[in-house]
Design brief:
Distance between the termini: 68 Å
Number of helices: 21
CATH superfamily of the largest domain: P-loop containing nucleotide triphosphate hydrolases
CATH topology of the largest domain: Rossmann fold
Structural class: alpha/beta
CATH architecture of the largest domain: 3-Layer(aba) Sandwich
CATH class of the largest domain: Alpha Beta
Strand order of the largest sheet: 5-6-7-4-8
Largest sheet: 5 strands, parallel
């Protein structure tokens, strides 16, 4: 009876935790990664709770990205849970193309296991990876996202150096620089390139051994190896990889022992001609608390910057993404609106498009500018620079060389009306103000007058190249 009650309590706690994660992560991420989790056993002696997922890939993905969040949530819910272990559901077969065991084609129990075949999606020699337990090194080595490839990466002037360098790092010929260091702010594509390098390298070298992890995960693995007196095994396996991909290297700051181990690993791999790629949100020289020797190793190859995507690249990314959503129609003015407004990072841009299309498909509504403004309020408000209507009026008056008072006057001369209409249009595009609010800022005009102005300028932009050029020039001035 007691065991049954414990199981019921765990299930109730998991329902609460899962619900909280759904609110934090959103419905899509929750449904894909958290919802499939099944409760395993709980060892009271060690305080370890097992969580199971149906496939090796999903277990690796959840362990890499959500293990800390899951551990914290469980520790808050139940103080007796000290560790959370994420693994494949018992009884599930390992996927074809991966070999677990000693490397001789036989599993740990001596049973025959399929060998990796050239061309397998993750055809690395997993036998040598072994694994240091359920969350060991071997599991982290296959955590590549199949959607993050060079094919799905959109290049432009902001990221062309990093993109070309990444492709060179994955090519069959030996790269001229090592290691490669990708530097970019959050959401600009550095993690995408790391995964793309891994996929392309495996395609070119089907038997290659690669290891992808975050710097934080690297430290966790290293500390576990120290506690279990398995540092020799850790070092041997780590230095046996052909390609090492380490994300968010800034989080290794201040960990002296982990820094030292990473330093020795870099030296050992470079000496053997292996390939190393690091990614961080800042340049090596800006990493605080990093040992000078490690900093010099990170800087010795190529440091490739990924700049924030400009308006042209943002448009291209949206158009590229829209190819996946056929036959859903997204009007050109919506694409332009998203590209101009969501400018902080590419991840938010793509996420905003995904949310908009998902909402339209699930509700049966057509995608429109109004729908975008209604459903993407949080994203849009976070990205918009606080441009005021006064600023818009001042800029338009300077551009067309009209007096500022004409914005509120009753004059109907074409030389005055057209700049006023452009200013109303820009006020609607660049500010969250409603039509009535905009009308009040233009001499108390009715909201229907503003609507007419906005639609007129939208139409003129499609038919009159000069008008479109004027508006583009004003947008650049106001957004700069």
């Amino acid at each position: 009876m007691r065991d049954e009650q414990d199981a019921l309590d765990l299930s109730a706690d998991w329902a609460d935790i899962s619900q909280g994660l759904r609110k934090d992560l959103g419905q899509q991420l929750h449904s894909q990664w958290i919802k499939p989790i099944q409760l395993g056993g709980f060892c009271k002696e060690t305080g370890t709770l097992d969580l199971h997922l149906p496939t090796e890939f999903s277990a690796n993905w959840v362990a890499d990205r959500f293990s800390d969040r899951l551990s914290l949530a469980w520790k808050i819910a139940r103080p007796d849970i000290r560790n959370v272990r994420i693994s494949v559901q018992p009884g599930r077969r390992a996927p074809q193309g991966l070999r677990f065991g000693s490397g001789d084609g036989r599993g740990r129990g001596g049973e025959a296991v399929p060998a990796a075949q050239p061309g397998d999606a993750l055809g690395m020699s997993a036998a040598e990876l072994g694994g240091l337990g359920p969350n060991g090194l071997g599991m982290a080595s296959i955590g590549l996202d199949p959607s993050l490839t060079f094919t799905t990466f959109v290049s432009g002037s902001a990221n062309v150096l990093a993109s070309n360098a990444a492709q060179r790092m994955a090519a069959t010929e030996t790269p001229q620089f090592a290691p490669l260091y990708l530097k970019a702010a959050t959401g600009q594509g550095k993690t995408h390139l790391l995964h793309a390098i891994g996929h392309a390298y495996l395609q070119a070298h089907p038997r290659a051994r690669i290891f992808y992890c975050s710097a934080e995960r690297f430290m966790v693995e290293f500390v576990q190896a120290l506690r279990q007196n398995q540092t020799i095994e850790f070092k041997t396996r780590l230095r046996g990889f052909d390609l090492l991909l380490v994300d968010d290297i800034q989080f290794i700051i201040g960990k002296a022992s982990a820094q030292e181990e990473l330093l020795y690993t870099i030296d050992a791999l470079l000496a053997e001609g292996k390939r190393l790629v690091f990614a961080a949100d800042r340049a090596p020289q800006a990493l605080d608390g990093v040992e000078q020797r490690l900093l010099s190793r990170l800087s010795m190859g190529l440091v490739a910057d990924i700049q924030p995507a400009d308006i042209d690249l943002r448009r291209t990314i949206l158009e590229h993404r829209l190819q996946r959503f056929s036959p859903t129609h997204v009007p050109a003015d919506v694409v332009e609106f998203l590209a101009r407004t969501i400018n902080r990072n590419v991840r938010e841009l793509v996420g905003g498009l995904n949310k908009l299309i998902a909402y339209a498909q699930l509700t049966g509504q057509a995608v429109s500018l109004q729908l975008a403004e209604e459903q993407l309020t949080d994203i849009l408000s976070a990205n918009r620079r606080r441009i005021t209507i006064d600023e818009i009026q001042r800029t338009v008056c300077q551009f067309y060389r009209v007096d500022r008072t004409e914005m509120s006057s009753k004059r109907r001369a074409r030389a005055v009306v057209r700049p006023r209409q452009v200013a109303m249009y820009l006020a609607k595009v660049l500010t969250p103000r409603s039509y009535p609010e905009i009308g009040r800022k233009f001499g108390g005009r009715d909201h229907s007058t503003v609507i007419h102005a906005v639609r007129l300028i939208e139409d003129l932009r499609t038919r009159d190249a000069d008008m479109d050029g004027d508006v583009r020039s004003l947008l650049r001035q106001l957004e700069s």
